[in-house]
Amino acid sequence: MQDENQDLVNKGEMLPLMEEFYTIQGEGFHKGTAAYFIRVGGCDVGCHWCDVKESWNADLHPPTAIDQIVENADKYSKTIVVTGGEPLTWNMNPLTQKLKEKGMQIHIETSGAYKLTGTWDWICLSPKKIKLPTPEVYKKADELKVIVYNKNDFKFAEEQAGKVGDNCILYLQPEWSKRDKMMPLIVDYVMQNPKWKVSLQTHKYLNIP
Ligand code: SF4
Questions:
Q1: Which secondary structure element, helix H or strand E, spans residue 7, and what is its range?
Q2: Ligand 1: which of 44, 48, 52 to mutate, judged by most atoms within 8 Å of the beta carbon?
Q3: Ligand 1 atom with the shortest distance to the CA of 49
Q4: Where is S-adenosyl-L-methionine bound in this sequence (predicted)?
């Protein structure tokens, strides 16, 4: 990356853009809602089951001016989902400010591992054991989405649920490659612990991005 671009990326005036697309949100509280997804490159959390490992190396994704990102988004939707990668790798204040100036509803999907920047209408917090969220983001999360890869993740889910606010909606979502094995356990768990809800990656069943 050229130095001048790196400087702008560091300020959040440019972002390494992996992809952007208009689709249906498949997961969590807003599933079924049409939304424009902005997938930002860069993540060093390192989940071994990550399904977007191509996002990890930010240098592989072109530094893109946030004005361009906002202009593209504005052609499609007033509901924006910023995802990654880990979007909080970067300063999200400039991007979200410009999206807000266009009157958009802005959601983030984050592990919460880094400082919370940006103005958000909806925070989906998906904590990861290997790099836990910052204390600040727990209290601001609107939904907690714990990915269940194995049985130990139920204990982790309860620990995480103890840290979010009272109104935070709690979801258990099977890791995609383990869905057949884990889904019966999740169903039993949710019936016994109904403060939780099941979240599915419905977009993968629908074969849409
Ligand atoms: S935090 Fe998300 S993008 Fe990063 S490694 Fe984990 S699943 Fe992948």
A1: helix 3-11
A2: 52
A3: 7
A4: 49-51, 85, 126-128
As a whole number of angstroms, the distance between CA 96 and CA 86 comes to 15
Q: Which atom of ligand 1 is nearest to the CA of 85?
A: 3
The tens digit of pLDDT for each residue in 16-30 reads 999 999 999 999 999
- Give 207's pLDDT tier (boundaries 50, 70, 90): confident
Query: Annotated binding residue at 97?
Result: no
CATH of the domain spanning 3-206: 3.20.20.70
Tokens 């403060």 belong to residue:
195
Instruction: Tell me the three state secondary structure of residue 14.
Output: strand
Q: Calculate how far, in angstroms, residue 99's C-alpha sits from the geometric centre of ligand 1.
A: 24
Question: Does the pLDDT of residue 173 top 70, yes or no?
Answer: yes
Kindly report, residue by residue over 104-127, the tens digit of the pLDDT: 999 999 999 999 999 999 999 999
Residue carrying the six token digits 């001016």: 65
pLDDT in tens, 57-69: 999 999 999 999 9
Domain boundaries, the chain: 3-206
* CA 12 – CA 55 distance, rounded (Å): 17
